[in-house]
Write a structure and sequence with these properties.
Subunit structure: Homopentamer.
Largest sheet: 2 strands, antiparallel
Shape: elongated
Strand order of the largest sheet: 1-2
Low-confidence stretches: none
Structural class: mainly alpha
Strand content: 5-15%
Subcellular location: Cell membrane
Distance between the termini: 69 Å
Protein name: Large-conductance mechanosensitive channel
Mean pLDDT: 82
Pfam families: MscL
Main location: membrane
Radius of gyration: 31 Å
Number of helices: 4
């Protein structure tokens, strides 16, 4: 029973739950960004480059022979994945930058109490003299 109890404590810690949520959201976010790149960004770039679809860019190293498929170097997919990565990295950078700016505002040290005015100092001296 001890092992089960330890596992339950581990699994229900805040960090593990936060990590699980982050992985799920990250997967969904990755699909959104991939769709953005594949369906919105890359088609206009392909048109600007003369109607090129990046997924079709490849170099045939060895032609197909009989039942053996051709050996193809698909560098277009690589370009597509690099663009995906750059966009995802930039968006995550901006999100973390925004979160850090919110934390800095929250973590600002509270202002020191204002110094006593001259009249308050005089009243404190009078109080101290009366105590004697």
């Amino acid at each position: 029973m001890s092992l089960l109890k330890e596992f339950k404590e581990f699994a229900l810690k805040g960090n593990v739950v936060d990590l699980a949520v982050a992985v799920i959201i990250g997967g969904a976010f990755g699909k959104i960004v991939s769709s953005l790149v594949n369906d919105v960004i890359m088609p206009p770039i392909g048109v600007l480059l003369g109607g090129v679809d990046f997924k079709d860019l490849s170099i045939t190293i060895k032609a197909a022979e009989g039942d053996l498929p051709a050996v193809v170097l698909s560098y277009g997919n690589f370009i597509q994945n690099v663009v995906d990565f750059v966009i995802i990295a930039f968006v995550i950078f901006m999100a973390i930058k925004a979160m850090n700016s919110f934390k800095k505002k929250e973590a600002a040290a509270p202002a020191a109490p204002p110094a006593p005015t001259p009249s308050e100092k005089l009243l404190e001296e009078i109080r101290d003299l009366l105590k004697k």
